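Okay, can you check this protein?
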Amino acid sequence: MTGTVAQIWRHPIKSHGREALQRVSLTEGRTMPWDRAWAVRHERSKADGTAWAPCANFSRGAKAPSLQAIQAVLDEADETLALSHPDLPDLHFDPATEQDRFLDWVGPIMPADRAASAAIIRVPDRGMTDTDFPSISLINLASHRAVGLRLGQDLSPLRWRGNFLLDGLAPWEEFDWIGKRLRIGTVEIEVRERIGRCLATAANPGTGKRDADTLNALQAGWGHTDFGVYAVVTGSGAVGLGDRIERLQ
């Protein structure tokens, strides 16, 4: 395998914005720093911020596709966020003290027939990933291009909301990594499972509008609706753009 890291992304608020990185340090047994550090609990949620909770407890792109178009910039020093969306004014706020400003801001792009966003929660030292274990996600750009060819569309890979976007691999090679150990940059990881996909991937990350039948393309083309893989960090280190990914086992 000769893959390299083409893009690195974190998502400070789960389903509410993405931010590109040049380099990131990862710690054994932890999620990517600041990735899904916050999550937006909806009014029917049972999540209380004391522990990890499944994605159904939160406002997300599967139910509110316009959320896919949010971009984010995190100021790590003061833990504030700048959010932008093509249909909204820019917002700069503190998730700890200015939740009402955020809720007022995001409200106009939330569907009226869905549970309303109620509060931002944060679990200390644990990103609110979709897995019940602290995970990072890997996206193979060759597989992404295969889906685009199937649909006859030029798709943005940001639909998949992955952490590490990898190039130079064979399509679907990542599924052969399940249970294997890899090195990416100076980090060692173990690939755990495929990522089962939802309707969020149908939304264009530039507009927030559903414009691609990604799930049907996966099912019709490959007999499943999985895309990308989840891994756990087994050896601390750093990953930067252009770093190689190699198989250890």
Notes: Residues 4-30+131-247 form a domain with the M1 Pyruvate Kinase; Domain 3 fold (CATH 2.40.33.20). The chain has a mean pLDDT of 97. The longest strand covers residues 187-196.
